[in-house]
Write a structure and sequence with these properties.
two-stranded antiparallel sheet; 19 helices; mainly alpha
């Protein structure tokens, strides 16, 4: 975690003029309430829209006034549904304005550290070295949380904790994480779905009923926030977003050959992710075909996330498929589950070859920020 804090410090002073709130990726054209900008001058990135972290930062200052803050957000219903982390930040900060940002960064570090810890424990459960826990930092979700203060890395850490508790028989702790996970991101619902699939397969009806209740608090919260602006999924056509993503020419403002190399890397990452989704679906066949008394949880999770990813490719809104930074981050639990399945069968080299173009493409964003920061600090 010291390395993450060091990178934050480098980028803040080398690229964001010493303003730590630049880590939230505040858009140059984004609107914020006067009470926020009046007390905390925001660093604006060149992108007009910015990125999601700016809205979680806004919520963290006044989570109980989310309806007033919603007027400034894009997709306010989705942003406000992910209330858990901003609310916890506000509570730990005691509601004090000046403490919110330090607490946000500290809690993000703690969540990332927890992700590494639980990943290391799960590797140990498979008889492998705890150093494999560092693969957590290669996940697009973790990269997004480090670079832009997004909640995907926090959700992935919660998923790892839930899987570890389930594998070690601590069902109450796992169940609690299953209840809380959707409040980080709605895809957290799929984590409990994986557990329910296990109990259904094993015909443990009491546990199935118990786990089927985990979405109830979040579903009530979704109903409560239905009046906020947002959109409902609409069918666009089979894999319409895949076609749009492949036809969409990325407007890279770079000379030959850099623009072409980036476009090629985009295609490689997209292809690798589709291969990961196919692998995840194949896990379903393996679950029912295998003879060994293995742990089917992660195989079910991989299959469920794969099916959801493929379904989303046919639905509006489909902006998640516009770039690797989006789809690979949102579906990082699939990539993480596949890692442990590969680790169990000693196919980690094959897995890392599959992950490499995805991580490389997503990692170019923080790499570019690092280069800009070093050039600035060196006076170049």
């Amino acid at each position: 975690m010291a390395a993450v804090l060091l990178w934050w410090t480098l980028v803040v002073h080398g690229a964001y003029g010493g303003r730590w709130n630049g880590l939230y990726c505040n858009g140059s054209a984004a609107k914020f309430p006067a009470w926020l900008e009046g007390r905390e001058p925001l660093y604006r990135v060149p992108s007009p829209a910015g990125y999601d972290g700016q809205w979680y930062h806004l919520l963290a200052h006044r989570p109980l006034e989310y309806r007033e803050s919603a007027a400034f957000m894009d997709w306010p219903r989705f942003r406000c549904q992910r209330i858990l982390f901003p609310l916890l930040v506000w509570l730990v900060a005691g509601g004090r304005f000046e403490w919110v940002d330090p607490v946000y960064f500290s809690m993000m570090l703690a969540a990332l550290g927890a992700g590494i810890y639980f990943a290391a424990q799960l590797a140990g459960q498979r008889g492998r070295t705890a150093l494999w826990g560092l693969v957590f930092l290669l996940m697009p979700a973790a990269i997004g949380s480090i670079e832009r203060m997004l909640l995907d890395g926090v959700l992935l850490a919660a998923a790892l904790g839930m899987w570890f508790f389930l594998e070690t028989g601590r069902l109450r702790a796992a169940w609690a994480l299953g209840v809380l996970a959707p409040f980080l991101r709605e895809t957290g619902l799929l984590l409990s779905a994986g557990a329910c699939a296990v109990w259904l397969q094993q015909r443990r009806w009491q546990r199935l009923v118990f786990w089927a209740a985990t979405p109830a608090p979040f579903l009530f919260w979704m109903w409560w926030t239905l009046d906020l602006p947002g959109s409902s999924p609409q069918w666009l056509g089979l894999f319409a977003n895949f076609q749009r993503a492949l036809e969409r020419a990325a407007p890279y403002p770079y000379p030959f050959p850099w623009a072409d190399m980036l476009a090629l890397l985009d295609l490689a990452a997209f292809t690798a992710f589709l291969a990961a989704a196919a692998w995840g679906l194949f896990e379903l066949r393996r679950i029912f075909a295998r003879r060994e008394n293995g742990q089917p949880l992660l195989a079910f999770v991989a299959a469920i996330f794969s099916a959801t990813a493929l379904l989303s490719a046919s639905l509006h809104p489909g902006d998640v498929w516009d770039e690797a930074y989006a789809y690979a981050r949102v579906f990082s639990p699939l990539l993480m589950a596949l890692f442990f399945e590969a680790l169990s069968r000693r196919r980690e080299v094959l897995y890392l070859l599959l992950l490499a173009p995805i991580t490389l493409r997503v990692g170019l964003h923080p790499a570019a920020a690092t280069v800009r920061s070093l050039r600035h600090l060196c006076g170049l």
